[in-house]
Amino acid sequence: MDNKILYFDHAATTPIKQEVLEEMIPFFKDHFGNASSVHFMGRGARKAVEASRERIADSIGCTDREIFFTAGGTESDNWAILGTALKEDKGKHIITTAVEHPAVLNTCQYLEAKGFDVTYLPVDEYGAVSIDDLNKAIRKDTILISIMLANNEVGTIQPIEEAGKIAKEKDIIFHTDAVQAVGSVSIDIKKLNVDMLTLSAHKFYGPKGVGALYIRKGLGILPFTMGGNQERKKRAGTENVPGIVGMGKAIEIAVRDMEKNRQHLTVLREQAIQQILETISNVKINGHPHKILPGILNLSFESVKGEAILLMLDRLGIAASSGSACASGSLDPSHVLLAMNCPHELAQASVRFSFGVDNSTEDIRCLANNLKTIIEKLRAMAQKP
Q1: In principle, which of 1, 79, 148, 193 could form an S-S bond with 177, CB 3.0–4.6 Å?
Q2: Pick the residue with more confidence: 226 or 120?
């Protein structure tokens, strides 16, 4: 490997782009004013915040007044769900899916403990939700539907446009977690028919600790935090100006380079599949064969524990994961794979490789070669009495 570190965990987080960092740096020291202050330093910070808000709005096809900054995807998901559930008085029924990110699932479970009724839609073997199942799950007291745009573990893209159309016809608030999709999928708010949409900067080569929630104009969900007048009294607290500036620049670049990056990641994924399947037997690809993010490849290796594969890759300087970074440290198999009716043993034998724009075809070749050696060694060890 020539001691080269290979990073294949871009679905967990991405490195910040140099262009993004350079745009942020002045706001840490030279232009450090509080964006709520009325003096010239504050006005300069406010101007930067609003410029970033416009960049994000332009990138997803909404108005700047519909973008609210948060601390990241988890906060945005929590706000969308809790802000709707605790305000709506026409019912206490929520619909989501069995393969959502923990930020959605755990929030829904919290609401269940508070007396709400939550329906967790099943998925097929590819991790996709059925529109028929969604239709059947809707009740008169349904107040919210939350379905992720693309899955963070297997990459499957959900039928959000169709689901949003149904929600709109039934006058039900519709939220989508688009954290994993930005930069890989073209996002048009009007086309998707969503009322709320979650974004997180560090998933598209921006800084950590900053995200946003699109809230459709006229949708009156409860504020997330109480305090000052920031974010039009919806999310109190001093704005993270450098992070917000970085997020605006990062999403602008992500949209600008999306098609080029999609083509590059598609090639890398196809090469990885070909090289790994040609040299390693009994490997299962998890996720949809076509409706899938180009940078995610989730594989199950029969007769081997995914944790053991990751440990051996790690020793070689190769970073990958077993699924959501927010579930790291857990020895339980992926809830996403289990929901896809993946056998328990295969679910525990899974590894997620998520490629980035800086990965190369040589990186893929190196991964495949090392993976072959690792799997052969682990399977040989498993056969010993």
Answers
A1: 148
A2: 120
